[in-house]
Structures
1.
Amino acid sequence: MQTQTIPSPEECQKAVRAWIESFPVQPLAYLHSFGCQLNAADAEQIAGVLTSLGYGRTEDPAKASLILYNTCAVRENAEDRVFGTLGSIKHLKEQNPALIICVTGCMTAQPQVAETLRRSYRHVDIVLGSAAASRLPSMLYAHMHGQRHAQDITVYEDIPEGLPTQRTSSFKAAVPVMYGCNNFCTYCIVPYVRGRERSRQPEQIIEEVRSLIEGGCKEIMLLGQNVNSYGRDLGGGMDFPALLRQIDRIPGEYWIRFMSSHPKDATPALMDALLTGEHLARTLHLPVQSGSNDVLSRMNRRYTVEKYLSQVQYIRERDPQFSLTTDLIVGFPDESEADFEATLRLVEEVRYDNMYAFIYSKRTGTKAAAMPDSTSAAEKSERMQRLLSLQRRISTENNARFLGKTVRVLCDGESRKRPGNLTGRTSENLVTEFPGDPSRIGHFAQVQITQTSGGMLSGHLL
Ligand code: SAM
Ligand code: SF4
Ligand code: F3S
């Protein structure tokens, strides 16, 4: 609730900038983003806006004049982490009352969370929902003019074009192609906190990707909650496979990845683009969530196990080793042992290279939150362990297909566990380790694989 008239965003920007310039020493901002890659992409815009306002950056909250957490609401433990972190910095505000603490993102877009922050986290100065980057100057302006606990949790449905972006990597970049979600899977909070689907104009996306590639970027991740519905709201005939094909024509040495791809909309055209594209990484993240038709229907996923398996078959008939990854939820309300065993069977059949498995977390306001659930927490975690151990076995068996082969990797860092080694990722997104000089980071390399395990490939540079 805003209790004063706030001038236009441009005037706020100017006033906040002048205020920051008046500090004897440049104030520093500490920014931490929780959650998914879309949130991380938002944080790069928040970082860009903070820099344009005159803030420097610090990795140490104790040195910051502004602390900003960009939050996630997808599971309860994500929210608990934020509340815990906010509790742990209360003393910083006591030591320095001029410190500005700001919380943004999906978690704060929920009215009950904003209310908890207002009541029980009095040291938080600014609460902003998603689409925070463009609203930050106005909120800082309100704070600067004495508004205590400035709050704006409206779920804005605009497309943030033209904002300054401060990217965290020089060779990997995330490019959102669309925002929001229309799917309302019954367990999921995202549509409530991110609003309805809206696609960026293809020209804007293609230009952004082109300029990243020309600037030396080697890997671009196209992002959306369901990239397969890209373009539906544009009415111009551009769908996601067509966008992929256009991007793929940009000359250069790079990989394109994307996520997430909802199975209800994954078409043969998408798979054909993936199978034939020159720059498209050979992997598809196709979140299945469950291997039981009954659970899928109660999740409102709008596909069946049979339809999902026909998509897997389409791609594997054309490339038997094509890499697939997935998301799975264990312990959806009233998931029976038979439902869970159906999930295990599906995982055995598809043989994913990797999966993200989550124990169901009840989200206030979603349909599943009102569903009866007789499965105990102990049973859910036991199922989770069974699923993870199955996936570990399959990953180990799958990774053995690379033994003795030469793979192309994008070198992305130094190994933390084995000094002198670099880490990289294959086109399938598998982590690879090999001895090498850090000057290779950010470049492609050929690596001969000499050892494999469930979690990793290792070898040497050619
Ligand atoms: N839009 C993507 C899709 O539909 O594939 C998913 C995005 S969501 C941020 C990432 C994953 O979180 C989902 O695929 C799902 O497995 C998991 N997830 C979402 N809500 C959850 C909940 N309430 N409890 C547990 N896991 C959840
Ligand atoms: Fe959530 Fe479903 Fe939308 Fe994915 S598609 S963000 S799981 S509602
Ligand atoms: Fe992402 Fe979490 Fe929001 S997963 S879209 S940051 S709820």
2.
Amino acid sequence: MDKVIKSANEAAEKIIEWSEEHKIETCFDRAQRMKPCPIGASGACCKICHMGPCRLVRASSEEETTGVCGATVSTISARNLLRMAVAGSAAHSDHARDMAFTLLAAAEGEAKDFAVKDVRKLYRVAGILNIEFEGRPVNDVARDVALKLIEDFGRQKGEINFIKRAPKKTIERWKKWGIIPRGVDREIAEAMHRTHMGVDHDPDNLLLSALKVSLADGWGGSMISTDITDILFGTPAPVRSEASFGIFKEDEVNLVVHGHEPSLAEMIVDVVNEPEMIEYAKSKGAKGINLGGMCCTANEVLMRHGIPTAGGFTNQELAILTGLVDAITVDVQCIMPSLAELSKKFHTKLITTSYKAKTPGAMHIQYDEHRAREIAREIVRTAIDNFQNRKTEGSHISDKFPVIAGFSHEYIEYMQGGRWRASFRPLNDAIIAGRIRGVVGLAGCDNPRFPSQGLHRFLATELIKSDVLIVSTGCGSAACGTAGYLTPEMALEHAGPGLREVCEAIGIPPILHLGACVDNSRILTIVSAMAEEGGLSDEIGGMPAVGIAPEWMSEKAIAIGCYLAASGVPVIFGGDSPVEASQEVTHIMTEVWFERFRGAMHFEPDPEKILSMTLDYIDRAREALKLRKYEPGKFGAERVLMDMSTRRELEKAAKPHLGIY
Ligand code: NFS
């Protein structure tokens, strides 16, 4: 029998083989053993009341079955999807709430270990919020920004603040369909109410609610989190680092930060560099302290500090299987509960840090932003103390790849024109000229039900070959990074001729690492800026842009898909459809949404089809915009891009370099 490939990541696959030899179970084994329930997987199972669970299996295609209450399969699958969007929006937004309260505590001097790091970004956000900033103390502005954004969670009437960052035409569509979110918490509560037994039964109405609650995530929670994280810890600009399991060091204390919320991880980055801590590690026989990241916390500290990443979701157990991890500290989301048992098979200490996210068998050190440094020190010391317990077993892997990460909206603007001429003009021009065919957001999870990370890799290489610029986030970035794809060399070797020229001129990779999962909000502001720049679509819809989540598994991915679709971006998910049971729901999410919002949400298990659908969307958008037909290697006229060194010289001559935007 042919060997089943479990991960397309070669280093991961080696560790999986080692785990099989040593009879240690991972998610890959469990995924094989635990087949998805076909009724639930297609959206046809309703378990929201205790007359059920009702499984709506039709005996024949003509027969219409309903639940005990009379709910149809369309009501049930729409309701299930809405609940997923609610949970995803709640996760991103609760993370954002913590960030907003951290900013407030820092501004009021209560979180003494934190301070505003990026004053320019603070002013930029204050400007958007109509908060006066000139001549005022930074902390006063920061407090006002925090308070204004905190209002977005509890507001009962009105509109969330950042809605106004969208193009006018996009906002008009939302108004017409009544999906402008009022406050994050209100939309979450209302959507949960609608999905309670006996409330909203209209699939279209339920799905509009999914769009509304998800817009509260994208233009609310996620965008708030991105902006506040930039304000507190700095707006990312490209940094070099490394990815994959070879980032762990045999002779140093290896500490991993895993999860999503960056404030504790930021403090740990600081603490591992304290001379006393390094001395302490040396006193225990280690040469130093090596910090690595996992999942989206990894993306946060990678793009701001160049902390190397061990990868995304399906790599988390495998990191422990290296036997080299002395401690893994987790905050919230995407943390496998299996880590607790697995870490006991090695010497690894699993440390939970949020009262919201505990795991039986893990050690708990409660994080509190008011005592951040003290807690970070306790965690780092725990890792150091555990170094001496390290044994030799484990699948030690040395593979690692260079990565360039940290492409924020602001940097992308800067790289196209420098500090004094920052704009999106060159990108729009390159698209108009056909040098860049279109833009794809490659996002979402990686998943043990596929050869994990393989779909990300396949789509990334095929798309750049077709001159499609990729912006990646979350585990999409991790899958590309651990394959060595996040380098400028990738453009030279694999990109189509037009994209290669653009990448060479600016000195960027063809896949731009935009950050963590909440940073999908950067995609929203980037496409809005492209719309504003002119020459393409005057709204987000109609742009030659597509979102893909090929290996999604999390409810957050559904929320992201919904807010992108509502904003005007067609989105394609891999794997089987969670609404497959209802043709009506599928029709609404594809055709009806496209008609209303120019976005859509598809589920397509065949990767080749995902690719062709993506290119088709892009080419149809180009045609509708009357842009020249894309032909590889044939371009129209466009402005010449100044390369980075010329630009730096010009800027140096103009004024000392003060920042990136
Ligand atoms: Ni987002 Fe998926 Fe999790 Fe981050 Fe990764 S699994 S939806 S990318 S780590 S949230």
